[in-house]
Amino acid sequence: MTILTEGKDGPVILTPDQVEELGKALDELRARVEADLGERDRDYIYKIIKTQRGLEIAGRGLMYLGFLPPFWLAGVAALGVSKILDNMEIGHNVMHGQYDWMRERGINSREFDWDTVCPADQWKHSHNYMHHTYTNVHDMDRDIGYGILRMDEGQKWHPYYLGNPVYAFLLMTFFEWGVMLHDLEFDNIVKGKRTWAEIKPLLQGQAKKASRQVVKDYVAFPLLTGPLFFHTLAGNAAANLVRNLWTYSIIFCGHFPSGVQTFTKEETEVETRGEWYVRQMLGSANIKGSKLFHILSGNLSHQIEHHLFPDIPANRYPEMAPEVKALAEKYGLPYNTGRFSKQIGSVWAKIFLLSVPDRFVKRAPKPSVIVMRNRKATEVGV
Predict the structure, then answer these.
(1) Chain centre distance of CA 144
(2) Fewer beta carbons within 10 angstroms: which end of the chain, N or C?
């Protein structure tokens, strides 16, 4: 299996033994952290939940003074951060099963539901199963472009992709709705690959969840503020927009900046545990930032560690990251990380560059990492 990377001295060749050594080291890291889980992690998630609820109460209360611009802005900020925490550090991580070991009601992946229009069960299928099992594998991981964007050269160019930047902007603006519709697989519906019987229960679940969210944000809470109905409605819409812009940006920075790799089904068939780990490391990117930045990102600023250990509590990723980086350096693998401005800049550059036919864009050749497999070693350009 040939994987593109940013090496300078020619291909890095990993033997099957090296790949499995790397996998064993990561398994040992995981086991050490799992054995150490306890009261510290329980206190952490409940502290985040308490903060999130406090911010929501503050934001709702400030809307009663929404006729004064400073209070309206403060309300939007409080609600926006509340929704970010609910979706990122709480919802995303709880629904990954990161706190199932606690065996407490309301904080496990089977029961938890979040403050967004996407039904939890549909998200867990498209994200927990499809994305995390087949990370960055073409025709398997639907997060590559979300069915509407061209985010990799391996996606054949079509005139439709001239609108890539426009589609990306719309997806960013209405991200919670894009996530909701993700599991429908609209492109496969258009191609006739999905039947009404398959999509009907999905649509019913979406209608039920989305209607509750719409009533909550755009009817019930605005009505509670009486004559300030439209001020509150606008504030809630603005808070949802803040959440959408932030979650889109963090997620895209972890999956699509320069240097992140994609794979074919042939390259990844019959993977060993070690090979799966290597794919996760090469198909992810981190974002540097402060402790607050990491919390607001749901610690998805440590996307490499998240893809390696999706069901380990995310607050542990910062302490795991140095060991993961050291292993990457030991075996000559890239550890893609950078400031937010660098990562988001490269994401948008890619969105624009991939909107035009390949013949109009000169791309520099890259050396490769060759992962030798016990079954076979293939030279496949990615």
Answers:
(1) 11
(2) C
CB 308 within 8 A of CB 258: no
Assign 7 a pLDDT band (cuts: 50, 70, 90): very low
Indicate the length of the chain as a whole number. 382
Q: Is the pLDDT of residue 36 over 50?
A: yes
pLDDT of res. 42: 97
**Of 51, 112, 106, 110, residue with least CA distance to 83:** 51
Q: What is the pLDDT of residues 294-350, one digit of tens each?
A: 999 999 999 999 999 999 999 999 999 999 999 999 999 999 999 999 999 999 999
81 versus 10: the higher-pLDDT residue is 81
Residue with tokens 């629904």: 95
- The reported pLDDT for the residue numbered 220 is 97
Summarised one tens digit per residue, pLDDT across range 83-96 is 999 999 999 999 99
Nearest-CA neighbor of 114 among 140, 138, 96, 136? 96
pLDDT in tens, 348-357: 999 999 999 9
3-state secondary structure the chain: CEEECCCCCCCEEECHHHHHHHHHHHHHHHHHHHHHCCHHHHHHHHHHHHHHHHHHHHHHHHHHHCCCHHHHHHHHHHHHHHHHHHHHHHHHHHHCCCCHHHCCCCCCCCCCCCCCCCCHHHHHHHHHHHHHHCCCECCCCCCCHHHCCCCCCCCCCCHHHHHHHHHHHHHHHCHHHHHHHHHHCHHHHHCCCCCHHHHHHHHHHHHHHHHHHHHHHHHHHHHHCHHHHHHHHHHHHHHHHHHHHHHHHHHHHHHCCCCCCCECHHHHCCCCHHHHHHHHHHCCCEEECCHHHHHHCCCCCEHHHHHHCCCCCHHHHHHHHHHHHHHHHHCCCCCCEEEHHHHHHHHHHHHHHCCCCHHHCCCCCCCEEEECCCCCCCCCCC
